[in-house]
Input
Amino acid sequence: MDFSMTSKFSENPKCWLINIEGEVDIFNSAEMKTKLIELIEENPVDIRIECKNLSYIDSTGLGALIAVLKKTKEYEKSIYFQNLKPGLSKLFKITNLDKVFVIEGDLDE
Amino acid sequence: MNNNEQIKLTLPINAAYVSAARLTASSVANRLNFDIEEIEDIKVAVSEACAYIIRKNAFNTNNDFKIEFDLSADKIKISLSVESAERFEVDDEEMSLLVIKAVTDSFNVNCQNGIFNMTIEKKHVQTSFN
Output
């Protein structure tokens, strides 16, 4: 499944609403990172990523998200993940990134 | 299952083809009747191993790398290999390798005679195989 990402600015609460679909891996993780960093630089608010249609993310994708988180932390903002599938939730736990990012509403809950 | 079966895949050192390796891994694991979580683990391990090899061979993009899936009734063994003129250091703390170790039963890396090799094994309890 191909990767796609859409973004929308929310005024209330102020945040970027991101929808990621498909698979994020070594092929497209840099593209995802660049787009997210551009959004933060355009308007430094929290990032909320909807993951219900995210079918896969690998360690390069997670590494890209860590780079984006560092940028958001420069503005004292956070990244929230919503509706991670169980397999992806497991990856966040294996890498301890569930303690770094805010994970909301796992699909296995 | 009477005889072991083997599937061989040769891919360019190009990130665009990692998804093809994942798809093959899922299909092969499904044939062995692994459950959904085990199939996901195998897919993750293969994808991380491919990404590791591609990152370490960024200077070597004219080359190919090979993936062999050895299927037996109780386990799948996956070997990834690439000819590598340079012997690169393996960092056990790298996220790719941590993930592979966490989702598989056995994981080994070695580099001999100019061939870098990663071997992954995943066992399962069911033995039915058509």
